Each structure stands twice: as structure tokens, then as C-alpha cells.
Amino acid sequence: MNTTRPEPATPEPSPAPEAAETGRVVLLTTSHRVAPGLLSWPAWQALRAADRVLCADGAHPQLPYLREAGIAVHEAAPTAQELVDACAGGRTVVVVATGEGEPALTDGLARLAGSGRVHMPELELLPASYDLPGARLLDLVQVMDRIRVECPWSSQKTHKGLAKYAIEEAYELVEAIEDGDRDELREELGDVLLQVVFHARIAEEDPDAPFSVDDVAGGIVAKLIHRHPHVFGDETASTPEEVKEHWLRTKAQEKRRASVTDGVPLGQPGLALAAKLTSRVRTAGLDVPLPTGEGIGYDLLTLAARAEAAGVDPEAALRAAARSYRDAVRAAEGVAEGVAEGVEGAEG
Description:
Blueprint: H1 19-22, E1 24-29, H2 41-49, E2 52-55, H3 63-68, E3 73-75, H4 80-86, E4 92-96, H5 103-115, E5 122-127, H6 136-150, H7 159-179, H8 182-203, H9 213-226, H10 229-232, H11 240-255, H12 270-283, H13 296-309, H14 314-333, H15 337-347
Parallel strand pairs: 1-4, 1-5, 2-3, 2-4
């Protein structure tokens, strides 16, 4: 008879806690470029279903709107372990992220998850609002406002004092376009945009006729809509020529100019001025012969008119020829391209 006692059965390991038991952490992010309270439907659902809503910033712009909607928000900055503990028993905790995005908290949660010793709750990043196209322009306006107030140089600038920079930046933009350098193009577009925002900020301080960047934007929006009846109205246009006809007709109605030459800036470069005048005359269907006279000026006027009639920008054509000549001079001097450009950039 076998009297050996059977060994006790090895107890089965306890099953790992289910996701519902460990709970859920929702990190709710919002954009400061969108009006507070304008949250996505999934965000509102998460907030209303949460067992607890936390926010470390008591002055967070979303809080008044959340509380008005009946969401109880507790001002707290829990550690990662405290947050995990708060989710025990299957609870859901929503953290309304501050402007910095809670990097300390997310790093702490990542360390706990990586340790393998903690049953982690389900983690979800839920964007509650998204930037609209052009939203970063709001950042530029805010930055410019602060610079205007706090920078000793910028705070003293006037429209006249900045005028030369607008011209310089416009030429640098043209150069970037002609060079085909995408990085330079992006940067120079930013520099030109800065001039617009800077002038608009200065204009806010005018005691007699102030206006803001919103007025500037509103004006150009209204102008674009009015001059594109084929896009925003009932008219049609299937060719660039028809579009230009709409543009000129609506522009003439707006400006009520006595002459086709009205509005042509006489201070622009000479070739561009000549081409613009001849373009206005040709588009208006006027038959005005070019003036004749002695001197290179009349010869250049004739060349500019010929270029415009052929659809060639005389300024761009002359710049292209001048750049070729510059390259020939450098080659004759034996100057390396990169070295020459570096010196030129330093002077600019």
C-alpha cells in the first residue's frame, strides 16, 4: 500500500488585473489658439464620463467653461504614481493639460510602465481642440505686441522708420524666388509678413486714425471677395484673361479713378514703372504712342514696353542678365562661389 502523501497542487497564478480594473488616464490637450470652451465632442464625452477631472493650473482658460458646463475640476498636480493609484478599481481620471503639456507627468508614467512592476491604467492622449489653418498667425501677433511694448528698439519705430525694411525684405523675397531656395523662400516670406504685422501694431497707437491687424486682414478679405465674383458670386471666368477683366472692372468701380495711371507708384524701379504704365494703357485699349526723345531713358522705355507686350517682366529679365554678368566677373576673378556669397551675405 502506497502511503506516500500526494503533493499539494500548485496554486494557479492570479490573473492579471483587467484593463477595467486598472482604470484609465485621459490626458486632455487644448490649443490656446482656439477660443476656450470650443472642445471636440469626444472631449466633452470624456469629461462628463470621468470619475475625476484634474488640472494643475488653477488659471487654465478652459476651467471657467468646464465648470459652467457642470464639470467638477480639482486643482491638483499628481505624481505618476498618485495618478495610477487614483485609477484603481477601474476609475477614469481626466487630466486637463497645461500649456506645457505635462511633460513631467508623462515621463513619470512612461517610467512606471517601463518598470514592469506596476499594473498600468489605459493611457489615452485626447486632443480636445485643434489649430485651424493660419492659427500660428495669432502667435505672431502676440509676440509682436510684446516686442512693441518691451523692446527699446522696436518700441520707438515709426511707419517711416520701417519703410526701408519693407523694400529690402521684398527684394530679398524676390531673390529667394529666383534662386529657387525653398528654405530661403520660407524665411523671406516670414520677414515680409513681419513687416505687415509690425506696421499694423504701430498703427494701433495712432491717436487720430488707429487700426489693427484685424482691420488689415478684414480689408483684404473684403477686397478679394469683391474682386473675385467668379469665385464668390454669380459671374464666370474660365481663363486668366477673364479673371483679369473681372479684377480690373471691380477695381475701377472701387477706386473711381480719373486716369488709368492713377495708383501706379512712381517710386518703383524704372523698368517696372514703364512696364506697368504700358500695361495699363494696353489693357484699357488706349492708343497712346510712346514718347520720342534723345537719351537712353527713351530707349529703355521702348524696351520695357516691348517686354511687357511680349509677357516678359523687364525687371526680372534684367536681373537675370545681371546675375549672369556677376557670375562671369567672379569666374574671371577666380573667386569661389561659396566664398563670394558668404561675404555678400555678411554685408547684407
